[in-house]
Amino acid sequence: MIELISAQARVVRVQTRLPFRYGIAEMTVAPHTVVEVTLRIDGAEPVTGWASEQLPPKWFTKDPTTSFSDDLEGLVGVVLHALAAARGLRGETAFDLWHHLDTRQSAWASAEGVPGLLAGLGTALVERAVIDAVCRAVGRPFVESLHDGTLGFSPADLHPELAGTHWRAHLPGAPAPRLAVRHTVGFADALSDAECVNPPQDGLPVSLEAVLRETGVRFLKIKTAGDPAADRVRLAGIFQVCDAAGVTPQLTIDGNESMRDGAHLERWIGELRSDPEVGPRLRESLIAVEQPVHRDVALDPALTGTLARLAADGIAVIIDESDSDVGAVRRALDLGYAGGTYKGCKGVFRGLANAVLTAHRTADDGRTRLMTAEDLSTLPPLTVSHDLVVASAMGLTHLERNGHHYFGRLAPLGATIVDEALAYHPDLYRADDRVGARLRIDGGDVTFASALAAPFGFSPTLDIGDLPELTLETARALI
User: Fold this and answer.
1) Phi, psi for 282 (deg, rounded to 5)
2) What does residue 405 show for φ and ψ, rounded to 5 degrees?
3) Of the four listed, 47, 206, 222, 344, which is most buried by Cβ atoms within 10 Å?
4) Angle at 320 between CA 319 and CA 326, to 5 degrees
5) 172 prior amide bond cis, ω within 30
6) Mean pLDDT within 222-242
7) Which of 107, 265, 240, 180 is nearest to 448 (CA)?
8) CB-based burial of residue 267 (10 Å sphere; 0-12 exposed, 13-18 middle, 19+ buried)?
């Protein structure tokens, strides 16, 4: 029996080296919260685990009429409510504990009118810290604890059609210790070195041209605006930079909820694919289009015809912001979407269950479904490590990473965090005189055998006692 005996959250300020423009927001600074939980397992000595996450503007809720300071009330509120709801919870396994918390948090969110995507942030932070603590307690890494039943993972509890299936057959027992980085190309990012104006003199690449040259990435995630004319120009420029670098890219396109109906989506796709310069390149490089339709209408049955026609033409459309609860990806698949996305802020067990579901349906009828791993501008060492081991456990071969690009450093979670990251995870981090340590990308890939061998991605323990307690006031004071 697991009892969650304490839970707390602290917060620090993080600042970008480059502005990150996505959707209706441009992020230059954000609060970064770290959650600590302590468990008692079968009456043994207490054990502690940690998780962290950015509190970014205008992603969980995209209301153009509110300020970031206004939005922080909701962001901080869901984390603090999840902590309060988690204290004293009991469960046989980490999965049970998470399921109980998710039920509590979801009921509260529904009653209070809190969007499910936002409410899930608090649940996911506690969930990841619980997983970390359980893995530390048993002395086994995440993937082993997942497959041997220690974590109690039961995807059929979320997707009833999986009852009786052997979920382990849909997930690799020995996940790869190396994944390709899918580099984000934001709205405001320079494509060529010549476009850079007053770049930071910090030794890191700024333009896409420099990223390709210095990191060797070959997978891209491209932010688009839903305007065919503007997006054609942007895509053409990206392909030109790739050609000059000798890179044949594989890419996902983030539609950023820029469309309101299927007609807009089909028209947009049609104009891109009919462009003589962009169209042929898209046909050979496109992996998926992510969340092109606004979350308010993306799961409307009226989109069924559009999705069927796009699928017949070989275009995979997946959801991201519409993934507001444990059944959202299943409902999306039923409508004809190709799948969904894993983000740590939505939850580990939920993401794994969706990966099993998409693989199960593909095996059942042969139609391709997929999950991708996306980034919420997460920072090392905790969040990135968690993302890497979960994406690898899903059997993915690439994942979006952008926190290392826009922020360029580890989250400042303690005086010794840099030294410990370098000592315990030298394959994942490299020393840097300017900021201490940075994510290591070689040949377009990250290597993280040390993270797979750690309890849940990161071996050292944390001491967060010197960080300010997370409150609305402390979070607002950091922006």
Assistant:
1) -65, -40
2) -85, -50
3) 344
4) 90
5) no
6) 97
7) 180
8) middle
Euclidean distance between CA atoms 79 and 72, whole angstroms: 11
Conformation bin of residue 311: beta by default, left when phi > 0, alpha when psi is -120 to 50 = alpha
Residues in CB range of 103: below 8 A, 6 or more apart: none
Question: Tokens standing for 124?
Answer: 């996911």
Give the Cα separation of 395 and 139 in Å (integer): 23
**Number of C-beta neighbours around residue 165 at 10 A:** 18
How far apart, in whole angstroms, are the C-alpha atoms of residue 179 and residue 255? 24
Report the pLDDT averaged over residues 411-426: 96
Residue of 52, 47, 45, 48 whose CA lies nearest to 31: 52
Residue with tokens 């998780």: 51
The first and second tokens of residue 121, run together, are: 């942030």
CA distance 72 to 56: 9
Element (H, E) at 359: helix 348-365
CA atoms within 13 A on the CB side of 392: 30
Q: Which among 274, 297, 222, 217 has a CA at the least distance from the CA of 252?
A: 222
CB 52 within 8 A of CB 37: no
Question: What's the distance, Cα to Cα, between the start and end of the chain in Å?
Answer: 41
Alpha-carbon dihedral sign for residues 138, 144, 149, 151: positive
Is residue 229 a contact partner of residue 267, using CB atoms and an 8 Å limit? no
CA-to-CA dists, residue 68 to 26, 64, 209, 411, angstroms = 10, 10, 32, 21
pTM of the model: 0.97
Collapse the DSSP code of 312 into the 3-class scheme (helix H, G, I; strand E, B; otherwise coil) and give the result.
helix
User: In the predicted model, is pLDDT for residue 23 greater than 90?
Assistant: no
* Helix 116-138 × helix 94-112 angle, to 10°: 160
Instruction: Report pLDDT digits (tens) over 122-149.
Output: 999 999 999 999 999 999 999 999 999 9
- The one-letter amino acid at 404: H
The answer for 183, left when phi > 0, alpha when psi is -120 to 50, beta otherwise, is beta
Return the DSSP state at 365: H
User: Among residues 233, 183, 98, which one has the least CA distance to residue 375?
Assistant: 183
Count Cβ atoms within 10 A of the Cβ of residue 304 and give its class: 0-12 exposed, 13-18 middle, 19 or more buried.
middle
pLDDT, average across residues 103-113: 98
Cα–Cα distance, 299 to 325 (Å, whole number): 12
Q: What is the DSSP string of 218-238?
A: -EEEEE--S-HHHHHHHHHHH
Looking at the DSSP assignment, which residues form a beta bridge with residue 49?
Answer: 37
Q: In the chain, what are the helix, strand and coil shares in percent, each to the nearest 5?
A: 40, 20, 40
Asked, as a colleague might, if the bond just before 381 is cis with ω within 30 of 0, I would say yes
The answer to whether 251 touches 286, Cβ cutoff 8 Å, is yes
Is the pLDDT at 62 greater than 90? The verdict is: no
